[in-house]
Amino acid sequence: MKVDFTKIKLVDIEGKELPGATYHKTIANILYQNTELLDLVEVAMKINKGEEVEISKEQLLEIKRLVNLKQSGVFSFARKTTNDFIDSLLEKSSTE
Fold first, then answer.
1. How close are the terminal C-alpha atoms of the chain, in Å?
2. Helix (H, G, I), strand (E, B), or coil: what is residue 3?
3. C-beta of residue 10 within 8 angstroms of C-beta of residue 61
4. CA nearest 37: which of 60, 16, 18, 15?
5. Is the pLDDT of residue 62 over 80?
6. DSSP state letter for 78
7. Are 31 and 7 in contact (CB under 8 A)?
8. Does residue 57 have a pLDDT over 90?
9. Considering the entire predicted model, what is its pTM?
């Protein structure tokens, strides 16, 4: 499936989008530095550039796992946003 990680929008507690957030770059760095899957290194580089990427369900689950690691340094609100984004993609793919 094609995924555009720039569509993940971080919001504050009141639901206002955080200005200047480039969260896709954070995801790219987490993947680049922590993945054991060689194919995700190339995906990380594309995500970092803001490109849409073609990824599998397994790769999405790996991204979710890596973002949720304590060592990722991602705050809980951003982890929840990522989990919700990935879960919605997985749900959508299962109904297609």
1. 11
2. strand
3. no
4. 60
5. yes
6. H
7. no
8. yes
9. 0.89
Q: What is the mean pLDDT of the chain?
A: 93
| Token duo for residue 43 | 């995906």
DSSP string, 20-62: T--HHHHHHHHHHHH---HHHHHHHHHHHTT--EE--HHHHHH
What's the CA gap between 74 and 8, in Å, rounded? 14
Q: Where are the domains of the chain?
A: 2-95
State the Rg of the chain over Cα.
Answer: 13
CA distance 23 to 30: 11
> Which tokens belong to 40?
């995700």
Compute CA distances 81 → 41, 42, 85, 96, whole Å: 22, 23, 6, 23
